[in-house]
Amino acid sequence: MVQFKQNFISPSKAEIARVSKENDISLLLAELLLSRGLQTYDEIQSFLTPTLEQLHDPFLLPDMHKAVARIMLAIKRKEQICVLGDYDVDGVCATAILYQYLCSVGAKATVYLPSRFTDGYGMNENSVRSLFDQGIKLIITVDNGISSLKEIALCNELGLSVIVTDHHQPSGILPVCEGVVNPKIACSEYPNQNLCGAGVSFKLVQALGGLEAAEPYLGLSALATVADVVELKGENRVIAALGLGTLAKHTGISALLEVSGSSKEQVTEDVAAFRLAPRLNAAGRMGHPNDAFKLLLESDAAKARSLALLLNDYNVKRQEEEHRITQAAKDMLVARDVAAMHAIILFSSDWNPGVIGIVASKLAETYNRPVLLFHKKGELLTGSSRSIPGINIFECLQAFQGMFERFGGHAQAAGLTIAYDKFNLFAQEFDNYLKNNISPLVFRPTMLYEMELPFGALSTSVISEISRLAPFGEGNPQPVFRSRRVRLENLERIGKDSSHLRAIAVQGVKRLQLVAFGYGHNSNDWQRESSFDILYVPESNTWQGENRLQLMLRAAKATSFFEQTSVSIIDRNKFYDAFFQNFLYNEGQETNTTKMNSLDSLITRSLKNRIYGTLILCAFQEGARNLKKLLVKEGLEDAVNIYWSELPKDAPSDNAILLAPILSSLQENRYLDTFFYDYTSCFKLPKVSSNVYVSEAKLEKAFLLPIRISRDAMADIYRKLVNRLKSGPASMLCLHKDLALEYPILVLGVLVFIELGFMLWDKETETVCLIDKCTPRDLKESSLYCAAFG
């Protein structure tokens, strides 16, 4: 089960009061600022009111003096300068910033943006030789170059000058060139090590022409800063806060806002990240980044709209491709032991190399493991990796750098190329490396929140206060709040594919609208739950001129299982329904099982030592009650997910309890260990894992005892069933309604009469049918009747 964890240590009440008084702000805002490490009046005012004066001196960056001197010399000599960029938003924006500035001061500048499909990332030998043949004298890399040692060595041989401006993590040896402007190199004393590529390009323009010359490029720098998910602290916050507001005035971006259905009145970080960035990125993923670059340079509104429509079309195709690859990757994992994996490493020659990075991000979020996906072309595999919090993927991959043809990246994402014949060895050794060097606790899904709030503390004025912390992003997350013992009423699936949910969240007397994106598949399970622990972001939703409070759900844990003191009628019937289906349906083969008097110690040890791979089945209410007591006693309430009847199709083999399991729905070999907490010999077990442990508690009698009925009562039930079924087959739901029998009694009666051959169950129509001519038999000939009452 996902773990909810407070991401900051709560400051003292005295500190909160002091900051509130000094800055004339609410106690809530004071606490949020303190939790971000802001203590003094000056720190807080700088944070709340960013200004250009807060930008750092660009000449504090390594080699900036050298870079400026060489560029000024090239301009003076009228040398051909090439800005060599990258195909993502950061790279294209960085290229546009520097190219436009160079042109504005009379430089002879050109641009080279590599194709993701034919060139790959950054510099390559062919592009270097082509630029040399074109008469280029100076190459300035933006958002790349730090790992291009061989290519820059070739430039030196050809007499090409190179200036590297980059923000990616150096792998050790720096390229030998005119200058390396990168805030992350070891000798850097620059206060902001988290600039994006466009941020470095912006600082280079500031160094070349001063702040006044750089200011027009704040918008593109802000867009890239948000899109590249760098920390929105200090200088980056200034760039984002001041730059986002200028984007609507940009001709190309204005057209893109229009075709994406976004408002031009206020370009927020969400609009930049989820509307603009995907469309700009789509050019490099599905076509060529030159199309995005042209849009950023275009000043004619009609031409800009045409380019924006092209990028929008690219984005639609990208979404389709992303869905296809995601499903293909999940299909591959069905046959694999995901529970034992520490990383997901897959390849295919059928995958678009421009999309696998996005798919890797989604799979990493779903399975909570690092994901490396590769496109195979010939004998080479070109891959994108994405990580999870707590695992620096760049540092982990550095241990295998000798196996790669190319490699580069940062803490949460990296790109690499490896020979096909080394893939299997790498995949095995990388998984072992994570197993031996990363704590198992890192793989536990964790959602962070700022503080716990009751619904009564929420209002539209609170949201207005919170908005002063924007723009939100890495290092300055949008405040997420936690509320417990919340009921969800009026659950409704929404969206064109019903993938989202809308509900009324109720805590005490307070009722608020809640929207849950991507949670549509939880609708049925959540209908039966009476209590939730939720994480959410409060927002103000304007509808028909009225401002209303709305909660945007980030995560929810059903807590009914641990909070209820008794089982509801609906849940009780679910257990009987599962018993009915398992008795009739289960065609599982006998599995090698280990029978034990009690599974408590094994289950406790398994849940404490492992995040994935443990499945616990509870077929009876008494077993569920006993298991709940065990988990509460051991403090393991957060160690498992609770499911009813069937496991979600794409659940990542997380530790789980399946209540009232439909055994025929279980997939083979999905879990390492399966514990049948209250096993019954009334039905067989499918092969769900290599290790199956069953308890000999024999709880079926206790399960059936509440419906113990006499022989005469059984005869009466039989007569009622016969009279009803003479008019035709009927589902269990119809029989329950028509005969007004308690559902458990109906289940027992139908199963006994089916076992005796008086009736049959039609699997196709899911109905009970009457057998016209049958031999009289004694009730004691039914094994189920004897198990219950014998």
Structure description:
By secondary structure, the chain is an alpha/beta fold. It folds into 6 domains: 3-40 and 448-558, OB fold (Dihydrolipoamide Acetyltransferase, E2P); 55-214, inorganic pyrophosphatase (n-terminal core) (Alpha-Beta Complex), CATH 3.90.1640.30; 245-332, no CATH class; 336-443, Diaminopimelate Epimerase, Chain A, domain 1 (Roll), CATH 3.10.310; 565-700, Rossmann fold; 708-789, Arc Repressor Mutant, subunit A (Orthogonal Bundle). 41% of the residues lie in helices and 20% in strands. It has 29 helices and 26 strands. The strands form 6 sheets. A 6-stranded parallel sheet has the order 19-24-23-20-22-21, covered by helices on one side. The chain has a 5-stranded parallel sheet with strand order 3-2-4-5-6, sandwiched between helices. A 5-stranded mixed sheet has the order 7-8-9-11-10. The mean pLDDT is 91.
